[in-house]
Design brief:
Two copies of one chain form a homodimer. Helix content of chain A is 68%, strand content 3%. The first copy, chain A, is mostly helical and 245 residues long. Chain A has two domains: 83 residues, Orthogonal Bundle (Arc Repressor Mutant, subunit A), CATH 1.10.10; 147 residues, Four Helix Bundle (Hemerythrin (Met), subunit A). In chain A, strand 1 and strand 2 form a beta hairpin. In chain A, helix 4 packs antiparallel against helix 9. Chain A is globular. At the A-B interface, helix 3, helix 4, helix 7 and helix 9 of A face helix 3, helix 4, helix 7 and helix 9 of B. Chain A binds a DNA duplex (30 and 30 nucleotides) through helix 3.
Chain lengths: 245, 245
DNA sequence: GTCAGGTAAATTGAATGCAATATAATTAAG
DNA sequence: CTTAATTATATTGCATTCAATTTACCTGAC
């Protein structure tokens, strides 16, 4: 009866800025992004069911486009589709998380390698600036700020690779892991923190020298260390958290 | 033909509901796989429209599940969805192909690195066997056989990484590139062929020594060389091929 | 003959409807 | 009182339907 599409539903607030020229940010992508954010931000418990009708009302759409979006999210690995049993938000085991981090490590290593081929001096200067900003947060023990700038640095390196396919793939995996980050914000241990800071020194150094293979190696190992911390954290948290059937 | 995806979550055989035994592979995945193969095998011209109704009849389904599959294929990068203008099979530019090969290189490099951590002696022996089999094809100038075994070796290395996420991601990108391979089967130049054979010697050597970082490097560069050949090929072929709007 | 304008057919995007399956609620038996 | 069986409800998967946009076709003016 009511095709109640909120008049602001067409307003594109997401990414890439508002190109008056390029209008092709379709309604479907809008739904997809909103639903993805909804899940990534942890509004649905881990392993919990995704209530179609409820989300339909929330988004002001019918089931057809919602189910299309769910299929895409399933292919992205964010939810899993059980036959005749609907969608559940995918619960990551320690093993899954470990695999994801290793792939992230491979992608970041690749990004570093390619970045060394393409990065400009200005971009390196920008990353250096961020590096010292991050160092400041480290000294002040401001973990929140540190974490934010840290991610920004990694993002900058990926962008400097000048590879849009890599950029999209990286964003995809980052999204999957982000959900875990929301569920519990990585209380990084002190000793690991200092270690990570030293690793970032070597990252910057290799980047300055445009030492691609070397940077690739460093970045992979850097994420390997992050991986260990993350998996440990999930394990500890998993004990406290309730388990789904 | 044969999907070179071995046994991940998306591997399906094309049998319809005539399989009462194994029913857990959902109908949706079935449609998805069939449609993907249909496109990858080149039944629709590059950049051509994807006729919904026609495919519905071909697959014996209604538009709803077909459109769901198209959305997924779009997220995989195989087709692109134009608002109100339907789906077109995505035409890869030289630039796109180059980016894809670099990402493939990064993934294979990662696979090699992880394989060195996890591979068994038996698996190495198997790869050695394939290597010499491939060498035989090389000596006999049997490009078809060479190509087949070559892909198999790379596949084995990815499998030896023991990382299912990597395996699925690799399969995804391999699928995207496969379409280009169908459109014209890489007439590899002689000199490049010998070079590739030598590279494979070093790959095997590094694998035997479980030299992860080294193997990662070699594999990336190996794919870089493949990339150059592929892009050159697409460029030459693109001249002869029809151009899109 | 070419091009602009307008109308008709086709195609897309999304909502609704219906059969099939799973989940819950209830009842009956041990 | 607990547990198995049965019925009722809810949810899923897919087909059908409908409005909106696009594409093709046709007419007419220059």
């Amino acid at each position: 009866m009511k095709p109640l599409i909120p008049s602001d539903a067409t307003s594109k607030v997401l990414g890439a800025g508002t190109d008056p020229d390029r209008e092709d940010l379709s309604l479907h992508d809008e739904i997809l992004t909103r639903l993805r954010d909804h899940i990534v931000e942890g509004n649905i418990p881990d392993g919990g069911r995704v209530p179609e009708r409820q989300l339909c009302e929330m988004l002001g759409i019918s089931r057809t486009p919602l189910r299309e979006a769910l299929k895409v999210l399933a292919s992205e690995g964010l939810v899993e589709l059980l036959p005749n049993r609907g969608a559940r938000v995918r619960q990551l085991s320690e093993h899954d998380l470990g695999e994801l981090f290793d792939v992230m490590g491979g992608l970041e290593g690749l990004a570093g390698r390619l970045a060394c081929e393409n990065i400009t001096d200005a971009e390196i200067a920008e990353i250096e600036r961020l590096h010292y900003e991050m160092y400041g947060f480290y000294l002040h023990r401001d973990m929140h700020g540190y974490f934010r700038v840290n991610q920004l640095i990694h993002q900058k390196i990926v962008e400097a690779s000048r590879n849009t396919v890599l950029l999209a793939t990286y964003a995809n995996f980052a999204g999957r892991i982000r959900r875990v980050r929301y569920s519990a914000n990585f209380a990084r241990k002190r000793e690991r923190w200092g270690e990570a800071m030293r690793e970032h020194e070597t990252i910057l150094d290799a980047l300055r020298r445009r030492a691609g293979s070397e940077l690739s190696d460093i970045l992979f190992r850097h994420l390997r260390n992050k991986r260990t911390a993350a998996v440990e954290h999930l394990k500890a948290d998993g004990m406290a958290g309730a388990e789904p059937a």
